[in-house]
Amino acid sequence: MGDYEQLRDPYGRIIDYLRVSITDRCNFRCVYCMPESGFPVTPKEESLTNEELVRLIGIASTLGMSKIRLTGGEPLLRKDLPEMIREVSKMPGVREISCTTNGFMLTQLAAPLREAGLTRLNVSLDTLKPERFEPIARRGSLQEVLDGIQAAFDEGILPLKINCVAMKGINDDEAADFASWTLTKPVHVRFIELMPMRWSLDETPSDFDAFAAHGEKGLLQLRQARGDMLSDSQMRRMFVSAETLQESIEKVHGPLEPAEIATNGPARTFRIPGAKGTIGFISQITNDFCSKCNRLRLTHDGFLRPCLMSDGELDLRTPIRLGASDNEIRDLFRHVVAHKPERHYLAEGQKVVGRGMSQIGG
């Protein structure tokens, strides 16, 4: 990292990871993330340009933030993504550029992204069953995503991680099937505990109550649902712990053994003995990993957040458009790090009302 500054928050955590949302647009409408109609999109003039994003990432890299993850919305919708990756890859302070995607456009873009300098890839996928994919994602097709994952394998974008959000009565019975994938492929499957987080506190009953209460029957009823998204209380009822998922996997595959992979992040990682890939559990509810949090989040419209679950954020877009120097922007990064909270309080019932996940960057 040369002579770059190293950011450290009030609790001694080294902050070296920046998650950058490059768009709030998405071509899916996953039930735990967005309503069928989507959220109102940010006017183009309020979103950061490629030049502004690259400048802010460059400033962050001089503060020791060497890991950059590009997210959305769906980042592959942004046509200048390969150009952005190419510019970031030239920064001497950056040693890892990764991207989180729903995988729908990977068949066409895996090669350009790798050629631009992408080093790692996470694909969000919540089911391996075609009949479940459409009710959960409400857009796209499972086969298109699987083809995109294969294209990423073919291009050698490794390690490749699959992120699965577990939901009781919906897809929690697929944990062992996802684990089976790791037996023959060098894929790293990570199960994520459902976070009760939505953009408003409206708890009006909807057709999703049937979805949560009746599992497969409710899944079929989603086809006639009126297009809402899961409410905070519904997400809490659909919560499945990482421990429960691990138990269901071990009933089929036997005891898992501890495993480690590079840039493991917050996941506790295991392996089926002899498997090519690994199985991870991101248990932000039952096994709070805040004590090891090393990240900040930059939104597509230029706000810097110290924590996913915090409503507080600092405007960087206005200063850079008013001509702030790099040193002045560095001071703003330092200010946010100095006010990073010690932890979230999801288990205690914390709710975030400012923005949804697709607007912050999942």
Q: How do you describe this structure in short?
A:
This protein is α/β, with parallel strands linked by helices.
Can you describe this structure?
The chain has helices spanning 50-61, 81-89, 106-116, 130-137, 142-154, 175-184, 208-214, 216-221, 232-237, 242-253, 317-321, 326-338, 357-360, and strands at residues 7-8, 14-15, 17-21, 67-71, 96-101, 120-124, 160-166, 187-193, 257-258, 268-271, 278-282, 295-298, 303-305, 314-315. The protein is of the alpha/beta class. It is globular, with a radius of gyration of 20 Å. The protein has one domain (7-360): TIM Barrel, CATH 3.20.20. 32% of the residues lie in helices and 16% in strands. The protein contains 13 helices and 14 strands. The protein has a twelve-stranded mixed sheet. A two-stranded antiparallel ribbon has the order 1-2. The model is unreliable at 198-226 (pLDDT under 50). α1 packs parallel to α2 (81-89), α2 runs parallel beside α3 (106-116) and α6 (175-184) packs across α10 (242-253).
Largest sheet: 12 strands, mixed
Structural class of the secondary structure composition?
alpha/beta
What is the count of structural domains? Answer: 1
The appropriate CATH architecture is Alpha-Beta Barrel
Record field, number of beta strands = 14
- What is the CA-CA span between the terminal residues? 27 Å
What sequence of helices (H) and strands (E) makes up the elements? EEEHEHEHEHHEHEHHHHEEEEEEHHH
In DSSP terms (H or I, runs of 4 or more residues), the helix count works out at: 13
